[in-house]
Amino acid sequence: MKPQHIPFPPWIRKGLSTGVQYHRTEGLLKQLDIDTICTQAHCPNQRECWEQGTATVLILGTICTRNCPFCSVAHGTPELPDAEEPKRIAQLASRLGIQYLVITSVDRDDLADGGASQFVAVVQACREVNPSMRFELLVPDFKGVQEKALDILDRVQPFVFGHNVETVPELYPVARPGGNYGRSLDLLAFARRRWPDTPIKSSLMLGLGETEDQVRRVLQDLRGRGCDRLCMGQYLKPSKDSLEVKQFVHPERFASWGEEAMAMGFTWVLSEPFARSSYHAQDATYSGGK
Ligand code: SF4
Hints:
Elements: H1 20-31, H2 37-40, H3 46-51, E1 57-59, E2 63-64, E3 74-75, H4 85-96, E4 100-105, H5 116-129, E5 134-138, H6 146-153, E6 160-162, H7 172-175, H8 181-194, E7 200-206, H9 212-224, E8 229-234, H10 251-264, E9 268-271, H11 281-286
Helix pairs in contact: 4-5, 5-6
The site of iron/sulfur cluster has 12 residues, from helix 2 and helix 3.
């Protein structure tokens, strides 16, 4: 049976105008040959973030070794890590005056360290040009090499550590078949034990068909693993082949989820339809988040 397409509700609207800074960000990314998850995931916030001179860099290529049907990033056999990539990202950060950079990557199950060394190389290159820069590392689940990967990341502390559970475990078979909910929780718990003072963040999308009880259990699981930052946003189908949206969650419901999450002990929560893991990430740093 053909999946049912639900029309966009009125609150799923974003302005389309772009300004000078947007084009400057776009031009520099192109000139320096840097990929972003903003474009690869067709993020609805791209105009807003780039206009503010911020972007989330996607390292280690644009080919993922997994194939999640909610995600528009291509999958297949990736290329070897690019040794020049860290320097180019440092140049980008310097020319845009970026003080807080979110770094993420595709899944690199083909690499012996899951790609952790490239995260470290990017942070080090950026710190060479701007020692006061801050970082948020939004990492894959480092399947099979979690301990080794965190050992490597430890070299560039401090940072915000992020790993997204993305959805409720009941939907992993359809939305994240190459992932494993328990493994993602293990990584968050492992990071918490490893870095007791580091903010640990996770995100999930609503609208894939999850129930409220299932969402609540995920929040409890995250708190139980020491996760203290949470981001919840509306799933939006990023490409024609991606999973259909099953439900649009009202902004007021997002707001009440936010209140519930704070009551559960999360110290920083972004819960609104356009929330994405890197959206307003830097605000936490400057507005008194942990
Ligand atoms: S929310 Fe994140 S991924 Fe989306 S445009 Fe902004 S920086 Fe990029």
